[in-house]
Design goal:
The chain has 71 residues and is mainly α. Helices cover 58% and strands 0% of the residues. It contains 5 helices and no strands.
Length: 71
C-alpha cells in the first residue's frame, strides 16, 4: 500500500532516518510505515505530500499521477 512513499524517498536519495526526522518520529516507526505494518497518521501523510510536492492520493496508491491537486 505504501510503495509510493518508499519510492519517493529513494528517488530523492533520502534515508529512512532523514524522513523520520522530518516527521519527528523514530526511524523504526517510519520503517513500519513503509512496510505497511503501521498505518500512517493523516498529519504525516499531509507532511509527506507537501514535502514531495504530490497528493495524499498518490502516497496512498489511489492514483498514479504524482501532480498535486490545485488548491
Amino acid at each position: 500500500m505504501y510503495q509510493h512513499i518508499k519510492d519517493l524517498r529513494e528517488d530523492n536519495d533520502l534515508t529512512q532516518q532523514q524522513v523520520a526526522e522530518l516527521l519527528n518520529i523514530s526511524q523504526t516507526t517510519y520503517s513500519r510505515y513503509e512496510s505497511g505494518t503501521l498505518d500512517i497518521p493523516s498529519s504525516s501523510l499531509i507532511a509527506l505530500a507537501k514535502y514531495y510536492k504530490t497528493s495524499v492520493d498518490y502516497l496512498l496508491g489511489l492514483t498514479k499521477n504524482k501532480t498535486p491537486y490545485d488548491k
